[in-house]
Amino acid sequence: MSIVAHVTHEAIQKIGGIGAVLQGLLTTRQYNRNIERTFLIGPLHESGARKHDCLGEGGEVLYSSSLGIRKTPHADALQIIEKTYEVDLVYGKRRLADDENGVTIHPEEILVDVSSFSLEQLNSFKLRLFERFSIESERYEGNWEYEEYVRLAEPGYYALHTLIEGNPESPCFIVAHEFMGMPLALKAMLDGGPSMRTIFYAHEVATVRPIIENHPGHDTRFYNALESGLNKGKSIQDVFGDQSWYHKHALIDKAHLCDAIFSVSDLVMCELRFLAQPFFKANINLVYNGIPSIRLNLSEKLESKKRLQKYVENLLDFNPDYVFTHVARLVRSKGLWRDLQLLRHMDRLLASRGKTAVMIILSSEIGNGRSSEDAHCMEAEYGWPLHHRMGAPDLVGGEIELNNGVTSFNSDSTAIKVVFVNQFGWTRERCGVMMPKNMDFMDIRKGTDAEFGQSIYEPFGIAQVEPLSFGAICVLSNACGCCGFVRHATDGADVPNVIVADYTHLNHVPDSLDGLLAIGAAEREQIEAENSWEIAEKLVARLPCDERETEEMIRQGYEIAEKMSWETVVENYFLPGLRHALNRHKA
Predict the structure, then answer these.
(1) 149 Cβ neighbours under 8 A, 6+ residues apart
(2) Reduced to 3 states, what is the DSSP secondary structure of residue 404?
(3) Is the bond leading into 436 cis (omega within 30 degrees of zero)?
(4) By the 8 A CB rule, do 389 and 448 touch?
(5) 10 Å Cβ neighbour count for 23?
(6) How far is residue 342's CA from residue 344's CA, in Å, rounded to a whole number?
(7) Residue 121 in contact with residue 154, Cβ under 8 Å?
(8) Which residues pair with residue 70 across a beta bridge?
(9) 193-209 b/e with 16+ CB inside 10 Å = b?
């Protein structure tokens, strides 16, 4: 049996992708059969350190000097750590549950409020990072993302060491989720004993994201340059220049020193190999993300779809034959303009068949969405979300550009209309009285005919394939890491439930690396226009025509999703990855 300590910014609650991964991993039966103790280590904001419920519903605080709680025999030792580093510690247990599979666990939490910190201790640790790992912390001291996790490292490490001293023979795996966990992993490399192993969990390659997002050639340019660079034995710095300015790169650049690296996809593995020469021979293990694998019958599917159709009818005065969806954060990497390009082709195809469809884009730049009151006011005043207005509480930031594209599309389209819902919380309370009373978020997953996800950078993409077991057709780009897991689950077969758009294939490949780096918006947009036509034809041809075909899509989708479940991930990828780290350390 082993101890696993996950170091992450989502130790307290699920915020995004890493939180979803932790929820999936930790609530599997395979994980709990093989892991003796699980710790979640992360930062705690100053206000949270003084709240009895800081560990959430079902959680229990066992130590907090701020709250006067000392329900652990390690209280004195934890208090010494607080005084040494001038921090506040919270230790306790959090409740995590998978209601679908009836699994509830209570991982241990170590949370550190680093808003104040001993300058002497901090400078000493930064000096050690420079002397051992050549990390120049003074370059990033103005960046709180960097500073926060460097401060977390030592008190977090010593708190963990204190709490596991009763398990001296059990191997302890420190799992650094992204750059945030690397300072603590480096601390373990400096001072950890023989029972400690370090693992870098690559949910992405942070160095790569801005290179793809910030250049108009996006994935078309980057992945062709990556392939050429790797073939020539070049690294990302050889091809794209010095990256040491970036605080995230400075930390993940040392991940090859860990006992193992977990990569969420084949694409991320390639990006890691491209990161620097030492990664060419690093111990990198594929550990895909899992996806929901939930049985659904035809009547449940049709009920959810009917609710979506009713909402559309309330907004647009017609009942569409098909409902398409895209649920995503509103960021450039999601490639939402590709949806509209694909829909333009599909509009002609569906019109020629006498069919109609509505695309619902559910995305927002406001973290928790608008207030319910604002949503109801906008709906009553000017027919939101069918119509939008510039400025808060409605359109802000990138929502404006997306809505401009949606408005332009709707003005020209015949068979397909797009509804942009810039609000989170798929209920009548959150979205207005036009939405059916009994609607909830799972309806947009269960009821959709096709989920779009044609990202320019998507290390895995759980959201893109979440509706797979519900019979939806998942339309992906080949920049989505989940495509690799789909290939594994289907033995490479072309299945009707998944369509992959290739926006990186070049009809005419430049002779030189410089030619590949010169790829810009014009070349990418031409490829998008050409390739999306083929995808449109495939999607229209695969849309189910009757209930029998819908039922078959549900059956096939569930079979694929079952092979991509979190139980499968833990048994076939995560646990073998831990063993690889253990064996490498012994070697």
Answers:
(1) 43, 179, 180, 181, 182, 183, 184, 251
(2) helix
(3) no
(4) no
(5) 16
(6) 5
(7) yes
(8) 63
(9) eebbbbbbbbbbbbbbb
Residue 452 in tokens: 């779009």
3-state helix, strand, coil split of the chain in percent (to 5) is 50, 15, 35
What Cα–Cα distance (Å) separates residue 157 from each residue in 111, 144, 251, 305, 320?
Answer: 11, 20, 17, 49, 56
Residue type for 316, please?
L
d(CA 284, CA 520): 32
Element (H, E) at 303: helix 298-316
- Locate 535 and state its tokens: 């995808």
pTM: 0.94
User: In one letter, which amino acid is 355?
Assistant: K
Nearest to 33 by CA among 56, 78, 2, 64: 2
CA-CA-CA-CA torsion sign (492, 493, 498, 501): positive
Total length of the chain: 587
Task: Specify the long-range contacts of residues 98-104, CB closer than 8 Å, at least 24 apart.
Answer: 98/23, 98/27, 98/28, 100/292, 100/294, 101/27, 101/29, 103/27, 103/28, 103/29, 103/32, 104/27
**Token digits for 17?**
């992708």
List Cα–Cα distances, 27 to 54, 72, 164, 170, 466, in angstroms.
Answer: 21, 25, 22, 21, 17
Beta strands in 124-210 (DSSP E): 172-177, 196-202
CA-CA distances (angstroms) from residue 453 to 110, 136, 258, 449?
A: 36, 38, 33, 14
Torsion angle, alpha carbons of 359, 360, 366, 368, to 10: -160
DSSP state of 112: E
Beta strands of 320-376 (E only): which ranges? Answer: 322-327, 357-362
- Please report the DSSP string for 473-540 in residue order: EEEEETTBTHHHHHHHHHTT---TTEEEE-SS--SS--SSHHHHHT--HHHHHHHHHHHHHHHHHHHH
pLDDT by 10s per residue, the chain, length 587: 699 999 999 888 777 789 999 999 999 999 999 999 999 999 997 666 667 778 888 899 999 999 999 999 999 999 999 999 999 999 999 998 887 778 889 999 999 999 999 999 999 999 999 999 999 999 998 899 999 999 999 999 999 999 998 777 789 999 999 999 999 999 999 999 888 999 999 999 999 999 999 999 999 999 999 999 999 999 999 999 999 999 999 999 999 999 999 999 999 999 999 999 999 999 999 999 999 899 999 999 999 999 999 999 999 999 999 999 999 999 999 999 999 999 999 999 999 999 999 999 999 998 778 999 999 999 999 999 999 999 999 999 999 999 999 999 999 999 999 999 999 899 999 999 999 999 999 999 999 999 999 999 999 999 999 999 999 999 999 999 999 999 999 999 999 999 999 999 998 889 899 999 999 999 999 999 999 999 999 999 999 999 999 999 999 999 999 999 999 999 999 999 999 998 875 54
Cβ atoms < 10 Å from Cβ of 492 = 9
Task: Please tell me the distance from the alpha carbon of residue 54 to that of residue 50, in angstroms, as a whole number.
Answer: 8
Distance CA 176, CA 187 (A): 11
